[in-house]
Design brief:
The complex is a heterodimer. Chain A is built from nine helices and 19 strands. By secondary structure, chain A is of the alpha/beta class. Chain A folds into two domains: about 230 residues, FAD/NAD(P)-binding domain (3-Layer(bba) Sandwich); about 130 residues, FAD/NAD(P)-binding domain (3-Layer(bba) Sandwich), CATH 3.50.50.60. The longest helix of chain A has 18 residues. The radius of gyration of chain A is 21 Å and the shape is globular. Chain B has a single domain, classed as 2Fe-2S iron-sulphur cluster binding domain, sarcosine oxidase, alpha subunit, N-terminal domain (Ubiquitin-like (UB roll), Roll). In chain B, the strands form two sheets. Chain B has a five-stranded mixed sheet, with helices on one face. In chain B, strands 3-4 form a two-stranded antiparallel ribbon. The relative contact order of chain B is 0.22. In chain B, about 5% of the residues lie in helices and about 25% in strands. The chains are: A alpha/beta, B mainly beta. Chains A and B meet through strand 8 and helix 3 of A and helix 1 and strand 4 of B.
């Protein structure tokens, strides 16, 4: 049995930032991540971040883990990193079980931050299981982490930020992107990203979806169709797209298995990406001492995940009896940073989702 | 499928070759590959079959979430090949059925 003050599950932007807050507060922290290296999905994000200095604006995502790990290294053996370690279970008595290689063990923390991130959604259409049809984030991993091209000609489904960014990164890797389609009547991602791929000659067709995929044992082509105002396919608008890869970029769902297992109340809030844990303003779930941050608590960007992680880490350390030297000020700064990230049109759905969540927390 | 040769942002330095087999066929991956990325670089995109209809399955998430890429590796079934690092000499096989632990 491993003992620690705070356990952080997930070493992505939220988890690493949570670990930093808890270490600053003087607590011992253990960070477990199932991947062989820390950083979560930052390790494939070759684009530069927005936001402010605290969110590493103008730094590429791939360079952020090293910066966060460097800041954590200053706390010496108070911070223990467990890469390649999958947390398998969260039990009612506060014990977690974990598997690292062949080594199975238990962890008993005083409090925990669950920062498990999200899973890519899929899309329902005939033959959507053909090899060649991949999550857009998966293709980003294959290219940017392992240096392997996914194929030759890509149809991108989804014009949100991930779809647009991955299209651009496919072009950077020397892969042809035939077109980007999106069922919505408007491009969902930032127009600065859309302009970039359009300038490179990739057309973006809105109000268009995939009717079916075709191919013998693997994707060879897809049939798309235009959608009317009620999202029904318009007869006569079918178009066949020759492609050996289709990237599905239709959003993410929070990974909440551990939270559900621990007994946290979950609610379906579409604006936050689906089933999310009910939590207080201090990021504590309905299970005392169990905190949450990042995509696991609602789908947002890595910048917001870092700020949420930092906040959750502060409160998780506090629960374990370690008060951050400047808790009130730090929390106020982080909350202001989050408000700035969620301001404006782009953050409208997040604000609406959080408002619903706050109401749920009142009655939980 | 090919490896990325030139990239405006990323460097892919030369890496050690790792020989392994896929269904008995010799293949070569690189140090730092997952089993799945090495197979993909060798043109292998069908990793598994669905249990009922035996439809071909490839990877989907590449980060160990979706279980679409499970194979038998060195006799151990249900290995998530997208989240397992390649090692020299690995015996990677397409899995039949749900797998039984030996």
């Amino acid at each position: 049995m491993k003992k620690t003050d705070v356990l952080v599950v997930g070493g992505g932007p939220a988890g690493l930032r949570a670990a930093l807050s808890t270490a600053e507060a003087g607590a011992r922290v253990l960070v477990a991540d199932r991947a062989p290296r820390m950083g979560g999905q930052l390790v494939k994000q070759t684009h530069m971040f927005f936001g402010s200095k605290e969110q590493y604006a103008s730094v590429r995502g791939i360079d952020i883990p090293e910066k966060l790990l460097g800041r954590l290294a200053r706390f010496g053996d108070k911070v223990e990193l467990l890469p390649g370690c999958t947390v398998l279970g969260a039990y009612e008595d506060g014990v977690f079980t974990a598997l690292q290689g062949e080594d199975y063990f238990k962890i008993r923390p005083v409090s925990a931050v669950i920062a498990t991130g999200a899973i890519e959604r899929t899309l329902a259409f005939p033959n959507n299981d053909l090899p060649g049809i991949y999550g857009a984030g998966a293709v980003q991993t294959l290219m940017n982490v392992y240096g392997v091209k996914p194929g030759r000609r890509v149809l991108m489904v989804g014009a949100g930020n991930i779809g647009l960014i991955v299209s651009y990164q496919l072009l950077q890797a020397g892969v042809e992107v035939v077109m980007i389609i999106d069922a919505a009547p408007k491009i969902g991602g930032y127009l600065v990203h859309a302009a970039k791929v359009r300038r490179m000659g990739v057309p973006i067709h809105t109000s268009r979806t995939v009717l079916r995929a075709e191919g013998n044992g693997r994707l060879e082509r897809a049939v798309t169709a235009a959608l009317d105002a009620r999202c029904a396919p318009v007869p006569g608008t079918e178009q066949t797209v020759e492609a050996d890869v289709m990237c599905i970029s239709v959003g993410l769902s929070p990974l909440t298995e551990l939270l559900a297992m621990a007994g946290c109340e979950l609610r379906y809030i579409p604006q936050l990406g689906g089933g999310v844990p009910v939590r207080s303003r201090e990021y504590e779930t309905t299970v005392p001492g169990l905190f949450v941050a990042g995509d696991a608590s609602g789908i947002e960007e890595a910048s917001a995940a870092m700020m949420e992680g930092a906040l959750a880490g502060l409160y998780a350390a506090g629960y374990a009896g370690f008060v951050h030297p400047s808790e009130a000020e730090t929390a106020a700064e982080l909350r202001a940073a989050l408000a700035a990230l969620r301001a404006g049109e782009a953050g409208r759905h997040i604000r609406a989702g959080l408002e619903l969540l706050e109401k749920e927390a009142l009655y939980a | 499928m090919e490896r990325i040769a030139r990239h405006p942002i990323l460097d892919f330095p030369e890496r050690k070759a790792l020989d392994f087999t896929f269904d008995g066929r010799p293949m070569r991956g690189l140090e730092g590959d997952t089993i799945q990325s090495a197979l993909h670089a060798n043109g292998v995109v069908v990793l598994a079959r669905s249990h009922e209809l035996r439809r071909p399955r490839g990877f989907y998430c590449a980060i160990g979430n979706c279980s679409s890429c499970m194979m038998t590796v060195d006799g151990v079934p249900n290995v998530k090949t997208c989240a397992t690092m390649l090692r020299a000499g690995m015996d990677v096989r397409t899995q039949r059925g749900k797998g039984v632990l030996g």
